Amino acid sequence: MLGLMLVALAQVQAPQDTATLDAPAYVNQAYGVSIPRPFDDWVFEPGTGPEMTTVIFHPRGAPLREQLWGALLLTRFAEPVPLRPVVERRLRSTWPGLLGGSFTRMASESVEVAGLPAIRTAMSGAIGGVALDVEEYAVARGNELLLLQFRIPRGLPPDSVSAGYRRTIEGLRIQPGTVSRLVQAAAPAPPAWIATPAGLPTSAWQAAGYDALVRYDTAALRADVAATVELLNAGTELADSVSLWLWPGLVLDSVHDAAGPVSPVPFREASRVGLSAAVPPGQETRITVFYHASGVDWPLPPRQMNLSPTGMFAATDWLPRVQPEVDSAGQLREDRRPDLTLRLDVPEHWKAVAQGRLTSDLASRGRRRMTWQMDQVMPAVAAFALGPYQVLTRNEGPVTVSVWITPADSPSSAAIDTLAAAVGEAWTFCSQAFGRLPIRSINVAVTDVPDVRGFAGLLLLDRAALGAAGGGGGLPSLATLVREIARTWWGNSVMADGPGSSWIVESFPAWAAVAAGGAWQGDSVRRRLTYEADSAWRAEPASSRERPLASVPAFPADPVLTTKGVVAIEAARRASGEAAFREAALVLAREHRNAWLRLSDVLAAFGPAASAALRPYLF
């Protein structure tokens, strides 16, 4: 039934045997929806079918075949509407078939309509020999779906028609429903390191690339950043301003565009910047954002970022944002991750380590500048570490492991060998389980970060893990290394979206450690590790233990993601069989490299038996 409903609006070509309504607005009491007409000479033709209500509005006396009309569809489902899958399905199947070979997807963005989560899409193509542009808003209110569509034939002046359509969308009124409030309350919160405040509005801008210079002053404990952002106007209208948001604790100094300085104006929790010239749809521009962080008055704990006389690390989303990472429904946006170039300027006797490839290392006049380029696996966070590092390199099979230590760290040569061998072994296992990546070097940097934190091809390691000077004790366990190295795949190479995304990016790395233990030490070890995860999960308070995994947020870290989440994956593996499950996990990771992965994709890849085993844990 879902598929039939989704194609109905696009294919409607005639009113549904009801009288024409010549009135300023259409009102539907059953749905609590009202909508004004675009122009005074337009009429409504509403109709109610067995599954949906469809309202067409068009110029009085004009035939629909001229493609100058709009439509509103109202329908209900038995469950909350999966908004993004609905829109993607229409873009994959409904609209290409209707608009023919000239179908072009011009934009897709998360917005709010009448205070509810919505997705706006813009397309072009031809119907019956008439070339046209189409704009559609999909709005979710609990288990109700509202689709509002506008058509503009290419032969008409688009500005005048668009003005009327804007009056319609701005005048749309949707009464809040109790179901929608329940759905919003159950929506999982985004991870803390990517959560952007409500003060950053959704917009048509997309950050296509960052080229950031970070200069660290060890005496002042200050990091000055100049981040050039390549901006793409992915909307359908001219854009003459952009909103910026910086991670808490970072201080905005100034903003420049191609013509020079532009003045940022505080806008709720963000800053609005007026550009020197408006940017047409589909065109790009650049702005450079200057800001700084000071370790003297740094307001947040050092888990995410730390500035000290002996080093600095950043393990959070420190680059300026022009678009919320989450959409109006509270789910991660599926924007393409931007290209990243980091230029790190440090004292000459220091070094900088980041993700990707080291493309240049120049020292002059007491300063050193190192450039790292990330262009193969797009990381979720542009993590880096600065300090008086020396680099110890070991070749470990398919990868080179570089361990970055400071004079304060005095591990024995044997300890470095052991650490490098363990990292190489963990990388080899993950490559076999999830597919090889175009990464030939793994960097392990000793910092003050608690424990071990994994990023794309980079591990930040607590210096206490190297043990006392010369002792070499306290190295992280092999299971910990597998878990953190697996994050190069889950959360970086493979990007998760929607309900269950936290389960994907947190539980799969934790499960990789269990799978590695079984592969290296036998099924008895695998069973013991699974039993320990199961016992730890069942020991949690009921409020955490009984929560469906598809609604568990990643931060603050919920232990059920690494206990119940692992048990769920193991249940799926036993249901489908080792060989089938291993192949499905490998194909899943390969096919979604540098792409977005949804829970529905996981269930489809693992097949009916594994999906049936997973569902009780997920839902």
Distance between the termini: 22 Å
- Please tell me what the overall shape is: globular
As for the number of domains, it is 4
Lateral arrangement of strands in the main beta sheet: 15-14-18-12-11-21-24-23
* CATH homologous superfamily grouping of the largest domain: tricorn interacting facor f3 domain
> Which runs of at least 5 residues are low in confidence (pLDDT < 50)?
1-10, 12-17, 177-196, 468-472
Beta-strand segment tally: 32
Largest sheet: 8 strands, mixed
Task: Count the DSSP helices.
Answer: 12
Structural class by sheet pairing and helices: alpha+beta
CATH architecture title of the largest domain: Sandwich
The first-level CATH class of the largest domain is given as Mainly Beta
**Residue fraction in strands:** 35-45%
- Overall mean pLDDT: 85
In helices, the fraction of residues equals 25-40%
Write down the CATH topology of the largest domain: Immunoglobulin-like
Gyration radius over CA: 27 Å
